[in-house]
Automatic annotation (TrEMBL):
It holds the Pfam family adh_short. GO terms for molecular function: hydrolase activity. InterPro entries: Metal_Hydrolase, SDR_fam. Coiled coil: none annotated. It comes from Frankia nepalensis. This is SDR family NAD(P)-dependent oxidoreductase.
């Protein structure tokens, strides 16, 4: 799914950073994907299961492109996540949670400040997929992830931008 999304974005002229655990595979995929595309494609190494790697990968993408205009986080299930439900052990489920959910959270956390600096907090709004597995049961808990934003910016991201988008004057 990730490579398909990257292919479509590059074909539309977007600059794309592919991040993978294996540096050689990421670079090879970027070269193959970038051939004949109008967008620039770079391959970056990073294991987002490791704390701090998401921030490093985002910083490398910002350096490569001079900023970010958005982020698409796609991940597939590794072999442990594809085991039959009754055959999977707790360790398999814990690994799969880290591999899919936690890596996505880390990538989004690493990107939000860079994105806000580029486009402004008035263009960022929060939504939750609850009750889907990646959504938040308590969407207001996302406030805890908005480190470095002042109260006015948090209010815009969590409330005011959505009201403006919907054309609601006030509640």
């Amino acid at each position: 799914m990730g490579l398909a999304a990257a292919t479509t974005l590059a074909a539309d002229g977007a600059n794309v950073a592919i991040v993978g655990r294996d540096a050689t595979r990421a670079r090879e995929a970027a070269v193959k994907l970038g051939a004949g595309q109008s967008g620039t494609v770079v391959g970056l190494a990073g294991d987002l299961e490791t704390a701090g790697e998401a921030e490093r990968a985002v910083a490398a993408a910002v350096e490569a492109f001079g900023g970010l205009r958005g982020m698409a986080v796609t991940t597939g299930l590794g072999p442990r996540g594809r085991r039959p439900v009754l055959d999977a052990e707790d360790a398999d489920w814990e690994h799969t949670f880290t591999d899919v959910v936690l890596t996505t959270v880390r990538a989004c956390r690493a990107d939000i400040q860079a994105l806000a600096e580029l486009v402004g907090v008035e263009r960022i709004l929060f939504g939750s997929d609850w009750p889907h597995g990646e959504g938040l049961a308590e969407p207001t808990d996302f406030v805890k992830e908005l480190h470095g934003f002042d109260d006015a910016a948090v209010r815009r991201i969590m409330r005011d931008n959505a009201l403006e988008l919907l054309g609601v004057e006030s509640l």
